[in-house]
Amino acid sequence: MEVKYENQPADIQYIVRTRSTWALAEMFLTAPLMVLLAAAPACGMLLLSRYFVAGVLVIAGVIFSAGWLFWKVRQAIRSSKVIPGVIRLRITPAFLDVEHAEYRSRLSWLAIESVHHVDDALVILQPMGRGYIVRDSFFKSAEAAQQFFAAASQYHASTKAVDPTVSDRSSLPAWTGDSSRHSISYQNTIAQWTWALKTIGAANKTIFTYLYPILLCVGSNGILAYMTIGDFRQADGGRVPLDSTFELFLLMLLLLISIASSFATLMLLRELANRVRIPDIWLLPKTVDIYPQGLVSGTSVGTSAIRWPVLGAAYRQKELLCVDDQQGRPTVIVPASAFPDETAAEAFLADMTAWNDAAIEASASIDDTLIVAESVDDQNPYRSPQT
């Protein structure tokens, strides 16, 4: 069974509707709450001290920052960048094929997290929010849409093993036959993917890396408490004299360190929580081939080929060589340790960034259409002009 459709920026709303109330609260509130919690100790101490006015001003700034983050998250959840063009989605009992002018992938149903029908759309989700959304209007009829959903649900529920055809490279685009390429095989760790889910510092952390911001947080908040609400008076009850300019500078410095170290501590705690959420399929052995035209990544549960112009930046982040997707999230993470030596890693990185930059520059005009891809249906709500 197959269907042809086009993405629209607002289609991400269908993914949102598959989430539980708890998951939605986490999506919307995690970032704003982390800002509020990071600033709470310092703000509380200022309010309990003679620096009450400063505390009020800081709280106002923190609330504004949290509100701004909430608005940014809301905007990101309301719509997302899409690659314009017709997509052909074909499903079989063993896998689903996705074909677009810019990319091609074949995934085992084991790589699919869930299959939903929400309102008037089919939603096939991969782990961590990626997936495929097909509105019912792209099917010939409401019955056809329901049959497709029923088949996808059955295939997903019944798949117990990977079919060898999932890794069949004969289904990939012609450009993947180019002799100019680099190939590397590796296996990601949980730490590398938790880093990709937004945290601070390097992917591979030591115990000291976790302890440092905690100690800084405790120390800065302790000194701030001593300056604001602590008992630092002389025996005769007079206040220890401090130069007002120096005192103000020290207070502001401690305030910044306190908030920053508290936020870093919360980020690291969130990272530890994210470690248990990394899907097993992200940790499977993987092979990545890069070409002047794009890259191919493959595991035992799926193979994808995508051209550089519809990917994000290619770069090195310390010990990791990364390629982002259009949302700015790492989609390929190659550890430098997978190469025989640093020279090989740098050669891979040099060609990867050069090919990525050249292709994106040559197709710069595509950026102007990434967020306006829409299709207009005729009078039949179940028949698109593309079908």
UniProtKB/TrEMBL annotation:
Origin superkingdom: Bacteria
Keyword Membrane (UniProt): yes
Residues spanning the membrane: 21-39, 51-71, 207-229, 249-269
Transmembrane keyword on record: yes
Keywords on record: Membrane, Transmembrane, Transmembrane helix
Protein name stated in the entry: YcxB-like protein domain-containing protein
